[in-house]
Amino acid sequence: MKTLFPILNSQFSILNSQFSIPQMSQTSSPISTPSPLNLFKQPADWFYALWKFSRPHTIIGTTLSVWALYPIALTATGANPTIGNLEQLLGSWIACLCGNVYIVGLNQLEDVEIDQINKPHLPIAAGEFSRQQAQLIIAVTGILALLIAGLLGPWLLLMVSISLAIGTAYSLPPVRLKRFPFWAAVCIFSVRGAIVNLGLFLHFSWLLQGKTVMMPTPAVWALTLFILVFTFAIAIFKDIPDMEGDKLYNITTFTLRLGKPAVFNLARWVITAGYLGMILAGWWLTASVNTVFLGVTHLVALGLLWWRSQHVDLQDQIAITSCYQFIWKLFFLEYLLFPLACILG
Fold first, then answer.
1. Predicted TM-score (pTM) of this structure
2. Of all helices (H) and strands (E), which one includes residue 293?
3. Of 136, 176, 188, 322, which is most buried with the most CB atoms under 10 A?
4. Number of domains in the chain
5. What is the pLDDT of residue 119?
């Protein structure tokens, strides 16, 4: 646990420049871009661009969700891990990663002009990937996600299919739900919060019980509701750093409607409600979690949130970005704390 934040800090030191937004007026000249990278001539640069294309913070979140739901399913079913189950776990992880790349890649493909203002480091906006290269990566990862999920089981296939469908509706015209703040938030927290957690539990319980599914336990529901609340806060907070590009390209967000201070404070109080709810839920989950561990760790996390979010200058892009990164770290932390509470319980 002591090493968690140094590890995440090292990851976010790499990502820090990725969240930064240069100041640019509407009259600025177009960004000049280099020639697209060639996989065979520039493999190191190409794979680093692919890493940025995958949006590392979402990859970390997806990875932690997969590897957290497996031990939760183990404790709920009373099963023992086997080599076959671990192979299934690895396959499930790869399918989810492919789905993740498809969703974030499609969003970048449809947002090139916006990203040239908000996130000019991203590979398509920076010219490191051509549109054709991005389309190929998106097509391959989307197909692989469905194929691998279909080979591993119906519940994983259902989860991946629904996630890809929502991700497509979020970014792709003519639907493009990201244009509407309410539906954009619903897309994000429904996938991250409900579909991923419930779908993975159903999938893993189906595997561990010899293809007999187990309905989500109260502990799984508690985690799902917490992540729903938390990802709603992330969904509205993420638009604060992107305000300039969203305004220029008529992407309506809560930040543009309500202003930075209102959205910032709303996100903090939503996360606070989630932590307090989880602490209270611990007393209801005494049969399946370590109540003391759950309560103490979530109280500490809540204190860290308020300590870190105090005196953030909402006119300072670096300060906003740093706070947003810290909220993602707390999101990652939950997928470590809650499985530990289940194991210790």
1. 0.84
2. helix 291-309
3. 188
4. 1
5. 86
